[in-house]
């Protein structure tokens, strides 16, 4: 590992692998290291035996072949028209992956699980809103669909940068239950804090949901075959094509700083057990490599469960169910995911379900989501801190990512990638461009 590099990236989580791939394509010499012996870090997908080992339990052969399982540690779905898809396209990394649509999207209202409407016919018959409310909802959704922040005529006289979301909902005469549905099942907020903020972000998030849904129909979500662990590996492959060097199972002894207090390299042990030094201009890392430079904001509490049955009323093999905070008397929404053999992540006839939320105490925060699962073959509970960096990294040249949250999709993850990019380059990442010379050897 001795040598000089433009960047050293620590941790092979999805965020770090995306940045590594972009840096490599941009001509930077990158050394990418991870203390683990597998790709993905906290966003990895692991097999059944690894799952039992992680939680200190004895494997259960009755569940099926361990290698048939790819279980996500940070489960999320991909918005079909979201930022992560644009990153995959701009880097051409989508050529390394296969995706399948998620079969259904559901939301809890008044104690019942209802399908989030995916067509005009479903919208007209959905029990989520009453007969007269359907027309008001339709008018709001048409407004969202037509809205363009750069075209004032589409604003219908509303200044969404000043008007709050609550004020906009009131203008359309929407009832509280409808507001719950829009804010949590379409805009995908996990609490009601957005209601007092400017409405433009909420409208843009609803618009993203609608555009993602329009691409494929049944739901706005995609999921990679063989699990989310395929994503960091695909970006790692991109970096390797452009000269990036990867080292797994490589613990870091220490970070080296120069007289100005800037990170200038790392020390690790080589194959002979002697210290080796790799020099760099800056470091990108996940929070686990810089615990003293991060603070804890919240906690994620999650249940990982293996079932022998689907969990939705429609018995779809893959789905998301959102339990809005107001419907279950919580501060944050609870998210329930389900994937199966149809996405090549479980043995035939088995389903993997996740129940996740943000919490400050890991007591009974998941109980409403756990009720949905029914009979469980095996289950595990995990609690971890959400850590965010204390500094931007300009002074010490250490650009640290945030921990993965409990949200149902990758938009927040993508925002963090874009933030890291801007901190490094001093300009936003342009998702509309296509990176060139992606196949230098062809």
UniProtKB/TrEMBL annotation:
GO terms of biological process kind: protein transport; small GTPase-mediated signal transduction; vesicle-mediated transport
GO CC term (a single one): cytoplasm
GO molecular function: Rab GDP-dissociation inhibitor activity
Pfam family name, one: GDI
Entry-linked InterPro entries: FAD/NAD-bd_sf (IPR036188), GDP_dissociation_inhibitor (IPR018203), RabGDI (IPR000806)
Family the UniProt entry places it in: Belongs to the Rab GDI family.
The protein, known as: Rab GDP dissociation inhibitor
């Amino acid at each position: 590992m001795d040598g000089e590099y433009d960047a050293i990236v620590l941790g092979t989580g999805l965020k770090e692998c995306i940045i590594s791939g972009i840096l490599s394509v941009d001509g930077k010499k990158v050394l990418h290291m991870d203390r683990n012996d597998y790709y993905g870090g906290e966003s990895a997908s692991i097999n059944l035996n690894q799952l039992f080992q992680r939680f200190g339990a004895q494997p259960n052969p009755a569940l099926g072949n361990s290698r048939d399982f790819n279980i996500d540690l940070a489960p999320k779905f991909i918005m079909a028209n979201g930022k992560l898809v644009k990153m995959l396209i701009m880097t051409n990394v989508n050529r390394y992956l296969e995706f399948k649509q998620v079969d259904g999207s559901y939301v809890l209202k008044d104690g019942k699980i209802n399908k989030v409407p995916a067509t005009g016919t479903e919208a007209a018959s959905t029990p989520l809103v009453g007969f007269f409310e359907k027309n008001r909802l339709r008018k709001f959704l048409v407004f969202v669909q037509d809205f363009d922040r750069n075209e004032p005529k589409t604003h219908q006289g509303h200044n969404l940068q000043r008007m709050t979301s609550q004020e906009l909902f009131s203008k359309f005469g929407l009832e509280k239950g409808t507001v719950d549905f829009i804010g949590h099942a379409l805009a995908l907020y996990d609490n009601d804090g957005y209601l007092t903020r400017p409405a433009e972000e909420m409208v843009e998030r609803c618009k993203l949901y609608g555009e993602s849904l329009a691409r494929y129909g049944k739901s706005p979500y995609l999921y990679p075959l063989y699990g989310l662990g395929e994503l960091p590996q695909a970006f790692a492959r991109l970096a390797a094509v452009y000269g990036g060097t990867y080292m797994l199972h490589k613990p870091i002894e220490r970070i080296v700083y120069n007289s100005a207090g800037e990170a200038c390299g790392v020390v690790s042990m080589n194959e002979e057990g002697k210290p080796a030094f790799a020099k760099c201009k800056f470091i990108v890392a996940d929070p686990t490599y810089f615990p003293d430079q991060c603070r804890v904001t919240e906690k994620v509490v999650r249940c990982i469960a293996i079932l022998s049955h689907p969990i939705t009323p429609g018995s779809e093999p893959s789905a998301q169910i959102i339990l809005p905070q107001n419907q279950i008397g919580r501060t944050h929404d609870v998210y329930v995911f389900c994937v199966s053999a149809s996405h090549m992540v479980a043995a035939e006839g088995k389903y993997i379900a996740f129940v996740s939320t943000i919490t400050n105490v890991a007591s009974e925060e998941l109980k409403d989501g756990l009720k949905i699962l029914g009979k469980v073959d095996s289950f595990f509970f995990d609690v971890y801190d959400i850590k965010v960096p204390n500094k931007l990294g300009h002074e010490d040249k250490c650009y640290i990512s945030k921990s993965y949250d409990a949200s149902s999709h990758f938009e927040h993850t993508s925002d963090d990638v874009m933030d890291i990019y801007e901190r490094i380059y001093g300009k936003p990442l342009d998702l509309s461009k296509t990176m060139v010379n992606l196949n230098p050897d062809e």
